[in-house]
Amino acid sequence: MPGAPRSTWHTHLRALATIARKDLVDALVSLRIAAVIVLPVLISLLYRLLLTGHGGLPRPALVVYDPDGSRLTERLSRDLGFRVLMAASPKEVAGRVLEDNAMAGLILASGFDAAFERGERPELRVIINPAQDPNHGLVRLIEDQVRHLAGQVPPAQVEVRALNPPAAAPPGFNLGRYLLLLWLTMSLTMTGIMVPPSLLVEEREQATLKPLLVTPASYGDVVAAKVLVGLVYVLGGTLLILWLNGGLTGSVPLTLLVLVVGGVVTVEVGICLGAFFDEMTALQTWSFVALLPFMLPGIVGPLITAGLFHLGPLTAALRLIPTSQVIAALERTLAGEVTLVGLLPELAVLMASAAAGFGLAVWLLRRRE
Questions:
Q1: What confidence score (pLDDT) does residue 188 get?
Q2: Which residues of 205-235 are buried (b: 16+ CB within 10 A; e: fewer)?
Q3: What mean pLDDT do residues 159-165 have?
Q4: Any bridge partners for residue 83, and if so which?
Q5: How far is 127 from 239, CA to CA, in rounded Å?
Q6: Model pLDDT for residues 5-52, shown as the tens digit of each residue
Q7: Average pLDDT in the 96-114 region?
Q8: What is the pTM of this model?
Q9: In this structure, are strands 104-108 and 61-65 parallel, antiparallel, or unpaired?
Q10: Does pLDDT of 63 surpass 50?
Q11: All domains of the chain in start order, with CATH
Protein backbone atom coordinates (compact mmCIF):
# COMPACT_ATOMS: atom_id res chain seq x y z
CA MET A 1 0.00 0.00 0.00
CA PRO A 2 1.57 3.38 -1.06
CA GLY A 3 2.84 5.49 1.79
CA ALA A 4 2.39 2.75 4.39
CA PRO A 5 5.41 2.10 6.61
CA ARG A 6 7.30 -0.98 5.56
CA SER A 7 9.23 -3.24 7.92
CA THR A 8 12.62 -4.15 6.61
CA TRP A 9 14.98 -6.89 7.62
CA HIS A 10 17.29 -4.20 8.99
CA THR A 11 14.53 -2.84 11.25
CA HIS A 12 13.63 -6.29 12.53
CA LEU A 13 17.25 -7.24 13.17
CA ARG A 14 17.89 -3.99 15.02
CA ALA A 15 14.81 -4.48 17.19
CA LEU A 16 15.78 -8.09 17.86
CA ALA A 17 19.33 -7.10 18.82
CA THR A 18 18.09 -4.35 21.15
CA ILE A 19 15.72 -6.69 23.00
CA ALA A 20 18.28 -9.49 23.16
CA ARG A 21 20.97 -7.17 24.54
CA LYS A 22 18.62 -5.95 27.26
CA ASP A 23 17.60 -9.50 28.21
CA LEU A 24 21.19 -10.72 28.35
CA VAL A 25 22.05 -7.96 30.83
CA ASP A 26 18.89 -8.55 32.88
CA ALA A 27 19.66 -12.27 33.17
CA LEU A 28 23.24 -11.61 34.24
CA VAL A 29 22.25 -9.32 37.12
CA SER A 30 19.48 -11.60 38.41
CA LEU A 31 20.77 -14.00 41.05
CA ARG A 32 17.68 -16.20 40.71
CA ILE A 33 18.16 -16.65 36.97
CA ALA A 34 21.92 -17.14 37.35
CA ALA A 35 21.24 -19.89 39.90
CA VAL A 36 18.99 -21.74 37.43
CA ILE A 37 21.69 -21.59 34.75
CA VAL A 38 24.57 -22.63 37.01
CA LEU A 39 22.78 -25.31 39.09
CA PRO A 40 23.02 -28.20 36.52
CA VAL A 41 26.71 -27.43 35.99
CA LEU A 42 27.42 -27.48 39.73
CA ILE A 43 25.47 -30.73 40.22
CA SER A 44 27.40 -32.43 37.41
CA LEU A 45 30.69 -31.24 38.90
CA LEU A 46 29.69 -32.37 42.39
CA TYR A 47 28.78 -35.88 41.21
CA ARG A 48 32.02 -36.07 39.27
CA LEU A 49 33.99 -35.26 42.40
CA LEU A 50 31.98 -37.54 44.69
CA LEU A 51 32.15 -40.53 42.37
CA THR A 52 35.90 -40.43 41.98
CA GLY A 53 37.36 -38.33 44.75
CA HIS A 54 39.70 -36.57 42.32
CA GLY A 55 37.59 -35.20 39.51
CA GLY A 56 37.13 -38.07 37.09
CA LEU A 57 34.29 -40.42 36.28
CA PRO A 58 34.32 -43.91 37.82
CA ARG A 59 37.28 -45.87 36.51
CA PRO A 60 36.65 -49.33 35.02
CA ALA A 61 37.87 -52.10 37.30
CA LEU A 62 40.16 -55.03 36.50
CA VAL A 63 40.75 -57.98 38.82
CA VAL A 64 44.40 -59.02 38.46
CA TYR A 65 46.45 -61.94 39.76
CA ASP A 66 50.04 -60.81 39.37
CA PRO A 67 52.43 -62.69 41.71
CA ASP A 68 55.53 -60.73 40.67
CA GLY A 69 54.22 -57.19 40.08
CA SER A 70 54.47 -56.94 36.30
CA ARG A 71 54.99 -53.71 34.41
CA LEU A 72 51.78 -54.54 32.53
CA THR A 73 49.73 -54.19 35.72
CA GLU A 74 51.46 -50.93 36.55
CA ARG A 75 50.82 -49.56 33.08
CA LEU A 76 47.13 -50.50 33.12
CA SER A 77 46.67 -48.65 36.41
CA ARG A 78 48.98 -45.66 36.01
CA ASP A 79 48.82 -44.86 32.31
CA LEU A 80 45.43 -46.19 31.20
CA GLY A 81 43.43 -45.33 34.33
CA PHE A 82 42.04 -48.75 35.22
CA ARG A 83 41.16 -49.47 38.85
CA VAL A 84 43.22 -52.60 39.57
CA LEU A 85 41.87 -55.01 42.20
CA MET A 86 44.50 -57.55 43.20
CA ALA A 87 43.48 -61.20 43.64
CA ALA A 88 45.23 -63.55 46.04
CA SER A 89 45.11 -66.56 43.70
CA PRO A 90 44.16 -67.45 40.12
CA LYS A 91 41.05 -69.29 41.34
CA GLU A 92 39.79 -66.11 43.01
CA VAL A 93 39.81 -64.00 39.83
CA ALA A 94 36.59 -65.20 38.15
CA GLY A 95 34.53 -64.82 41.33
CA ARG A 96 35.92 -61.34 42.00
CA VAL A 97 35.09 -60.21 38.46
CA LEU A 98 31.41 -60.98 39.01
CA GLU A 99 31.37 -59.82 42.62
CA ASP A 100 32.95 -56.44 41.86
CA ASN A 101 31.31 -56.11 38.42
CA ALA A 102 34.76 -55.59 36.94
CA MET A 103 35.39 -55.31 33.22
CA ALA A 104 37.65 -58.36 33.20
CA GLY A 105 40.09 -60.46 35.16
CA LEU A 106 43.77 -60.98 34.26
CA ILE A 107 45.88 -63.93 35.36
CA LEU A 108 49.58 -63.37 34.74
CA ALA A 109 52.05 -66.25 34.79
CA SER A 110 54.77 -66.23 37.42
CA GLY A 111 57.86 -64.42 36.17
CA PHE A 112 55.87 -62.63 33.45
CA ASP A 113 58.36 -59.78 32.86
CA ALA A 114 61.39 -62.04 33.23
CA ALA A 115 60.02 -64.33 30.52
CA PHE A 116 59.87 -61.34 28.17
CA GLU A 117 63.51 -60.58 28.82
CA ARG A 118 64.44 -64.19 27.99
CA GLY A 119 62.55 -63.95 24.71
CA GLU A 120 59.82 -66.36 25.85
CA ARG A 121 56.04 -66.07 25.47
CA PRO A 122 54.51 -66.12 28.94
CA GLU A 123 50.88 -66.98 29.41
CA LEU A 124 48.30 -64.28 30.06
CA ARG A 125 44.70 -65.34 30.69
CA VAL A 126 41.88 -62.81 30.26
CA ILE A 127 38.44 -63.48 31.76
CA ILE A 128 35.90 -61.14 30.18
CA ASN A 129 32.75 -59.86 31.87
CA PRO A 130 30.35 -59.56 28.90
CA ALA A 131 28.08 -57.18 30.80
CA GLN A 132 30.93 -54.66 30.94
CA ASP A 133 32.80 -55.47 27.72
CA PRO A 134 30.42 -57.19 25.28
CA ASN A 135 32.70 -56.60 22.28
CA HIS A 136 35.94 -57.81 23.94
CA GLY A 137 37.62 -54.49 23.19
CA LEU A 138 39.79 -54.88 26.28
CA VAL A 139 41.56 -57.88 24.73
CA ARG A 140 42.85 -55.77 21.85
CA LEU A 141 43.95 -53.07 24.29
CA ILE A 142 45.90 -55.56 26.43
CA GLU A 143 47.51 -57.14 23.38
CA ASP A 144 48.71 -53.70 22.30
CA GLN A 145 50.14 -52.98 25.74
CA VAL A 146 51.92 -56.33 25.89
CA ARG A 147 53.48 -55.72 22.48
CA HIS A 148 54.57 -52.27 23.58
CA LEU A 149 56.20 -53.56 26.74
CA ALA A 150 57.95 -56.50 25.10
CA GLY A 151 58.85 -55.03 21.73
CA GLN A 152 57.87 -58.18 19.88
CA VAL A 153 54.84 -59.46 17.96
CA PRO A 154 53.09 -61.29 19.48
CA PRO A 155 54.93 -61.67 22.80
CA ALA A 156 52.23 -63.51 24.75
CA GLN A 157 49.63 -66.20 24.28
CA VAL A 158 46.38 -64.47 25.18
CA GLU A 159 43.64 -66.90 26.20
CA VAL A 160 40.13 -65.42 26.40
CA ARG A 161 37.19 -66.91 28.26
CA ALA A 162 33.84 -65.18 28.83
CA LEU A 163 31.96 -65.74 32.08
CA ASN A 164 28.48 -67.14 31.43
CA PRO A 165 28.11 -65.45 28.03
CA PRO A 166 24.43 -64.60 27.46
CA ALA A 167 22.66 -65.73 24.32
CA ALA A 168 21.95 -62.12 23.42
CA ALA A 169 23.85 -59.66 25.57
CA PRO A 170 22.08 -56.30 26.03
CA PRO A 171 23.89 -53.17 24.91
CA GLY A 172 26.57 -52.10 27.36
CA PHE A 173 25.58 -49.51 29.94
CA ASN A 174 28.05 -46.67 30.39
CA LEU A 175 27.43 -44.91 33.71
CA GLY A 176 29.54 -41.92 32.76
CA ARG A 177 27.66 -41.45 29.49
CA TYR A 178 24.32 -41.83 31.28
CA LEU A 179 25.19 -39.14 33.83
CA LEU A 180 26.41 -36.83 31.08
CA LEU A 181 23.11 -37.18 29.21
CA LEU A 182 21.23 -36.58 32.45
CA TRP A 183 23.11 -33.35 33.19
CA LEU A 184 22.67 -32.13 29.60
CA THR A 185 18.93 -32.80 29.81
CA MET A 186 18.76 -30.94 33.12
CA SER A 187 20.58 -27.94 31.66
CA LEU A 188 18.46 -27.91 28.49
CA THR A 189 15.18 -28.07 30.37
CA MET A 190 15.91 -25.95 33.43
CA THR A 191 17.57 -23.12 31.55
CA GLY A 192 15.24 -23.26 28.55
CA ILE A 193 11.95 -23.59 30.42
CA MET A 194 12.71 -21.30 33.37
CA VAL A 195 15.00 -18.45 32.24
CA PRO A 196 13.29 -16.88 29.16
CA PRO A 197 9.77 -16.90 30.66
CA SER A 198 11.08 -15.25 33.82
CA LEU A 199 12.42 -12.38 31.73
CA LEU A 200 9.11 -12.10 29.90
CA VAL A 201 6.97 -12.06 33.05
CA GLU A 202 9.30 -9.55 34.71
CA GLU A 203 8.79 -7.23 31.75
CA ARG A 204 5.04 -7.63 32.07
CA GLU A 205 5.14 -6.98 35.84
CA GLN A 206 7.33 -3.91 35.35
CA ALA A 207 5.08 -2.67 32.50
CA THR A 208 7.98 -2.52 30.02
CA LEU A 209 6.62 -5.00 27.49
CA LYS A 210 3.81 -2.88 26.00
CA PRO A 211 6.06 0.16 25.39
CA LEU A 212 8.47 -2.22 23.68
CA LEU A 213 5.73 -3.32 21.28
CA VAL A 214 4.94 0.31 20.40
CA THR A 215 8.39 0.50 18.81
CA PRO A 216 9.02 -1.12 15.40
CA ALA A 217 9.50 -4.43 17.24
CA SER A 218 6.84 -7.01 16.35
CA TYR A 219 5.64 -9.94 18.45
CA GLY A 220 7.83 -12.17 16.30
CA ASP A 221 10.84 -9.96 17.07
CA VAL A 222 10.18 -10.22 20.81
CA VAL A 223 9.87 -14.02 20.67
CA ALA A 224 12.95 -14.38 18.44
CA ALA A 225 14.99 -12.21 20.83
CA LYS A 226 13.90 -14.30 23.81
CA VAL A 227 14.79 -17.49 21.90
CA LEU A 228 18.22 -16.10 21.09
CA VAL A 229 18.93 -15.10 24.68
CA GLY A 230 17.67 -18.40 26.05
CA LEU A 231 19.75 -20.32 23.52
CA VAL A 232 22.90 -18.42 24.52
CA TYR A 233 22.47 -19.48 28.14
CA VAL A 234 21.44 -23.04 27.23
CA LEU A 235 24.54 -23.50 25.09
CA GLY A 236 26.75 -21.91 27.73
CA GLY A 237 25.56 -24.39 30.36
CA THR A 238 25.59 -27.48 28.16
CA LEU A 239 29.02 -26.74 26.69
CA LEU A 240 30.44 -26.27 30.18
CA ILE A 241 28.93 -29.61 31.24
CA LEU A 242 30.41 -31.31 28.16
CA TRP A 243 33.85 -29.86 28.88
CA LEU A 244 33.84 -30.69 32.60
CA ASN A 245 32.64 -34.27 32.04
CA GLY A 246 34.76 -35.28 29.06
CA GLY A 247 31.85 -35.04 26.61
CA LEU A 248 33.72 -33.32 23.78
CA THR A 249 34.19 -36.66 22.04
CA GLY A 250 32.61 -38.47 19.11
CA SER A 251 30.97 -36.22 16.52
CA VAL A 252 31.33 -32.88 18.30
CA PRO A 253 29.82 -30.72 15.48
CA LEU A 254 26.75 -32.97 15.37
CA THR A 255 26.47 -32.87 19.17
CA LEU A 256 26.46 -29.06 19.03
CA LEU A 257 23.85 -29.10 16.25
CA VAL A 258 21.54 -31.30 18.33
CA LEU A 259 22.00 -29.07 21.38
CA VAL A 260 21.19 -25.95 19.34
CA VAL A 261 17.98 -27.35 17.84
CA GLY A 262 16.95 -29.01 21.11
CA GLY A 263 17.73 -25.81 23.01
CA VAL A 264 15.48 -23.79 20.70
CA VAL A 265 12.60 -26.19 21.42
CA THR A 266 12.94 -26.05 25.22
CA VAL A 267 13.34 -22.26 25.17
CA GLU A 268 10.16 -21.91 23.13
CA VAL A 269 8.30 -24.09 25.64
CA GLY A 270 9.43 -21.66 28.31
CA ILE A 271 8.39 -18.62 26.29
CA CYS A 272 4.92 -20.12 25.78
CA LEU A 273 4.63 -20.43 29.57
CA GLY A 274 5.84 -16.86 30.02
CA ALA A 275 3.32 -15.59 27.48
CA PHE A 276 0.48 -17.42 29.20
CA PHE A 277 1.11 -16.44 32.84
CA ASP A 278 1.08 -12.88 34.19
CA GLU A 279 2.57 -13.49 37.64
CA MET A 280 5.95 -14.91 38.63
CA THR A 281 4.49 -17.18 41.33
CA ALA A 282 2.18 -18.96 38.89
CA LEU A 283 4.96 -19.16 36.30
CA GLN A 284 7.41 -20.79 38.72
CA THR A 285 4.83 -23.35 39.82
CA TRP A 286 3.91 -24.43 36.31
CA SER A 287 7.51 -24.29 35.10
CA PHE A 288 8.42 -26.97 37.63
CA VAL A 289 5.43 -29.03 36.48
CA ALA A 290 6.59 -28.71 32.84
CA LEU A 291 10.14 -29.74 33.80
CA LEU A 292 9.11 -33.24 34.82
CA PRO A 293 7.94 -34.63 31.45
CA PHE A 294 10.72 -32.88 29.55
CA MET A 295 13.39 -34.30 31.86
CA LEU A 296 11.94 -37.82 31.84
CA PRO A 297 13.63 -38.91 28.56
CA GLY A 298 17.02 -38.00 30.00
CA ILE A 299 16.32 -40.06 33.12
CA VAL A 300 14.90 -43.25 31.59
CA GLY A 301 15.81 -43.01 27.88
CA PRO A 302 19.39 -44.37 28.15
CA LEU A 303 18.18 -47.05 30.59
CA ILE A 304 15.58 -48.22 28.07
CA THR A 305 18.24 -48.29 25.32
CA ALA A 306 20.48 -50.42 27.54
CA GLY A 307 17.63 -52.82 28.30
CA LEU A 308 17.68 -51.94 32.02
CA PHE A 309 14.25 -50.31 32.20
CA HIS A 310 10.91 -50.83 30.48
CA LEU A 311 7.85 -48.61 30.23
CA GLY A 312 5.77 -51.02 28.18
CA PRO A 313 3.15 -49.22 26.07
CA LEU A 314 4.25 -45.88 27.55
CA THR A 315 7.53 -46.08 25.62
CA ALA A 316 5.76 -44.86 22.48
CA ALA A 317 4.31 -41.92 24.44
CA LEU A 318 7.79 -41.06 25.71
CA ARG A 319 8.99 -40.60 22.12
CA LEU A 320 6.42 -37.84 21.66
CA ILE A 321 8.35 -35.62 24.08
CA PRO A 322 10.86 -33.55 22.05
CA THR A 323 13.70 -34.13 24.51
CA SER A 324 13.48 -37.86 23.77
CA GLN A 325 14.66 -37.04 20.24
CA VAL A 326 17.49 -34.98 21.72
CA ILE A 327 18.61 -37.89 23.94
CA ALA A 328 18.36 -40.43 21.12
CA ALA A 329 20.52 -38.21 18.91
CA LEU A 330 23.07 -37.35 21.63
CA GLU A 331 23.58 -41.02 22.52
CA ARG A 332 24.87 -41.59 18.99
CA THR A 333 26.76 -38.32 18.46
CA LEU A 334 28.68 -38.67 21.73
CA ALA A 335 29.68 -42.19 20.70
CA GLY A 336 30.63 -41.02 17.19
CA GLU A 337 28.32 -43.62 15.66
CA VAL A 338 26.20 -41.41 13.38
CA THR A 339 26.40 -39.08 10.40
CA LEU A 340 24.30 -36.03 9.59
CA VAL A 341 22.12 -38.14 7.32
CA GLY A 342 21.52 -40.60 10.13
CA LEU A 343 20.35 -37.75 12.39
CA LEU A 344 17.79 -36.41 9.93
CA PRO A 345 14.77 -38.16 11.53
CA GLU A 346 15.47 -36.69 14.97
CA LEU A 347 16.40 -33.28 13.54
CA ALA A 348 13.24 -33.19 11.44
CA VAL A 349 11.06 -33.80 14.51
CA LEU A 350 12.93 -31.19 16.54
CA MET A 351 12.80 -28.57 13.78
CA ALA A 352 9.08 -29.16 13.30
CA SER A 353 8.61 -28.79 17.07
CA ALA A 354 10.65 -25.57 16.99
CA ALA A 355 8.54 -24.10 14.19
CA ALA A 356 5.31 -25.03 15.99
CA GLY A 357 6.65 -23.64 19.27
CA PHE A 358 7.60 -20.32 17.69
CA GLY A 359 4.16 -19.90 16.12
CA LEU A 360 2.41 -20.81 19.37
CA ALA A 361 4.57 -18.39 21.39
CA VAL A 362 3.80 -15.49 19.00
CA TRP A 363 0.06 -16.31 19.07
CA LEU A 364 -0.03 -16.52 22.88
CA LEU A 365 1.91 -13.28 23.30
CA ARG A 366 -0.34 -11.40 20.86
CA ARG A 367 -3.46 -12.83 22.50
CA ARG A 368 -2.35 -11.94 26.04
CA GLU A 369 -1.22 -8.43 25.12
A1: 93
A2: eeeebeebeeeebbbbbbbbbbbbbbbbbbb
A3: 62
A4: 61
A5: 38
A6: 445 666 667 766 777 777 777 666 777 777 888 888 888 888 777 765
A7: 89
A8: 0.65
A9: parallel
A10: yes
A11: 9-51+173-368 (no CATH), 61-131+135-162 (3.40.1710.10)
